[in-house]
Amino acid sequence: LNKNTKAWKKNTQAQKKSEAQKRKLTTTTQKFGASMGDLKKFAMRGGVYGAIVVGAVASGKAMISATKEMETLEVQFKTLLGSKGEAQKRMKELAKFTAETPFELGEVSTASRILETLTKGALSTGDGLRLVGDASASTGADFENLAMHVGRAYDALQNNRPVGESMMRLQELGLVTGDARNKIEKLQKAGRGTEALSLIHI
After folding, report:
1. What is the C-alpha to C-alpha distance for residues 82 and 136, in angstroms, rounded to an integer?
2. pTM flag (> 0.85)
3. Model confidence over 12-55: pLDDT tens digits?
4. Backbone φ, ψ for residue 144 (5° rounding)
5. DSSP structural state of residue 1
6. What is the rounded CA–CA span in Å between residue 80 and residue 87?
7. Measuring CA to CA, which residue among 123, 120, 59 is closest to residue 97?
8. pLDDT at 22
9. What is the pLDDT of residues 152-174, one digit of tens each?
10. 73, 105 in Cβ contact below 8 A?
11. Quick check: 186 and 154 in contact, CB under 8 A?
């Protein structure tokens, strides 16, 4: 009997010890699970916050870059137009033009400067610039390059000088027909180059 009692007590103690170890293991596992959950949530929050921060930094850099570009272009137009006020006015017009067309501010500004120089302002803003922009969009020609050829043709016709390469390029783009080119050349020889401008389809 004593032996049985001792064995029973020993078995009971072993069971209690085993249960205690189980409870400890369960508690540890639960804590670990909670920690992992917290870590996962933190990582997810970090990802969201990180994306927001990265986006904000990228947006800030883009704004700084755009501001610098505007300042650089304004300085260039100040030199070309003779005053800061005129330069700011031109940049305002070009920014509006850019917002209403598929073109970028940089190429619009370059085209405007080219046309300002070659056409003495006749086609560098407003309806004139829009006509060149429309011609660029309809033909697929580079805006800046087309502005150069239109400007050269305009300048040559205004001053009764041979148009040459630029007239050929305009003909290739379908902005001047073969018949129109012949008429332009005749008018130019007669000293009536200005009248020929209407034969260029922009």
Report:
1. 29
2. no
3. 555 555 565 556 545 554 554 555 455 445 445 555 544 444 44
4. -65, -45
5. -
6. 8
7. 123
8. 54
9. 999 999 988 888 889 999 999 99
10. yes
11. no
